[in-house]
Amino acid sequence: MNLKNINSLIGKVFLSLSLILPILMPSVASSERVKLYPLKDVVAYGYVNKLGEYIIKPLFDRASVFHNNGLAAVAMDGKSGYIDRSGQYIINQQFDEAYSFYDNGLAKVQINGRFGVINQTGAWILKPLFKDITILDELIKVDFGEYEGYADLNGKYLTFSETEVYNANF
């Protein structure tokens, strides 16, 4: 089977899904549903429409689905950032790892082995100081390794002071 036949088959699968999903899962059929899908060709990931046609050329080493905010995490040449549905970087490649956005508009990112949180413009909510981070609906759980704490969605520490965070022994 050659690449043209594979792309044709993929297009038929996406077309079938686009007809079946609205019936089985009406919420997925809403205007907020993802309209571009990550797909890897032989070498790299790009994004296809429901017909299997590449809308964003395969350029990326990794690619996530588009979030409702219109951004997708992608990686290329060892750095991650976020693109819009036209393939343009909205948040430049600056992270070692970038994760999908949550419904609260925040995303977990990693730099030099430490995790932080950014908003949809790429502004830091929590700088990358933590062993791990878990973004919850109303709070952000931060892990120092020896102990854990919470911050609100604006980055205000709730269980310890900012001085304690910056002076923590990593």
Based on secondary structure, the structural category is alpha+beta
SSE string, helix = H, strand = E?
HEEEEEEEEEEEEEEH
Number-wise, the strands total: 14
Number of helices: 2
Strand content: 35-45%
Radius of gyration from CA coordinates:
19 Å
- Main sheet: which strands, in order across? 4-5-6-7
**Major β-sheet, in short?**
4 strands, antiparallel
Q: What is the straight-line distance between the termini?
A: 53 Å
Q: Helical amount among residues, as a percent range? A: 10-25%
Low-confidence stretches: 21-34
Shape: elongated
Average pLDDT value? 84
Keywords:
alpha+beta, 170 residues, 2 helices, four-stranded antiparallel β-sheet, elongated
Description:
- The chain is built from two helices and 14 strands.
- The protein is elongated, with a radius of gyration of 19 Å.
- It has a four-stranded antiparallel sheet, with no helix packed on it. Strands 8-9-10-11 form a four-stranded antiparallel sheet, with no helix packed on it. A three-stranded antiparallel sheet has the order 1-2-3, with no helix packed on it.
- With 170 residues, it is of the alpha+beta class.
- The model is unreliable at 21-34 (pLDDT under 50).
